[in-house]
What we know:
Layout lengths: L1 H16 L6 H19 L5 H6 L1 H42 L16
Helix pairs in contact: 1-2, 1-4
Amino acid sequence: MEATLHQLEQLSYSLVERLAFTELDQLNDYMRERDALFIALQQMTVTPAQKQAHQSTVKRILQMDEVIVGRMKELRAAAELEINKLSNGRVVKNIYEPDAYEQESYFFDQRK
């Protein structure tokens, strides 16, 4: 258990160190590795003494998780903004495309 918690702490710490420059792909990799470590932790049987001994490590990991989740929210907000820009651009483009006026006009200019 101690080794798995240490791996999780190191994984979180290394991500927090470079968090300002972290992109979505790196966060996905982190989450995949983190999930594997959590699965390993869940399969272990832990005594109350072990829980008590590793409580400070768990607290540090949870504090780093809060920072990581904040960065994830920033990236999600930026992605939502870009998606909205694209969809708004698509709507404007569709308005001005010739396919928007598929029906022929019935008005004639008779001033000649």
